Please model this.
Amino acid sequence: MRTLLYLIALLLLMPQLLIVATIKTVAHLTTRGTLGGLFTASWNLLDLLLGWGGLAAIAIAIALFVAGSIPLPRFIASLALLLTAAYTSFVLVMFMESSSIADAIFFLTPGAVAIAAFVWLIRKEWPRVQSLVSASGRP
Model:
């Protein structure tokens, strides 16, 4: 059941993460201010994504999906994804206008549900992690 909750929370976080990645990418590409700078920044980003950066992103995504099925990695991955969800929520709040409450609710609700699920998972996995650590004989 915890694995299912982890995967649901991860899927709820994905749209918010993609929106923030898009915002950050567009902001990065347009910082140069010229058309040549845009093309140069786009080429550099494409080179990064098609090179080692893309492979690292795929490896991290697979590791996060696999980590949900094992107790100790699920605790660590839940903690990492909780921090990611909090960061993406903060970025979305900073880019939204204060008058668009309906938009804020629409965009932030899946992330808030994911944050609540990750907090619950961290709380429930902590005793299991403690028992695994104490069984290994480490202080």
Summary: The mean pLDDT is 85. Residues 101-135 form the longest helix (35 residues). Helices lie at 2-29, 35-50, 52-67, 71-95, 101-135.
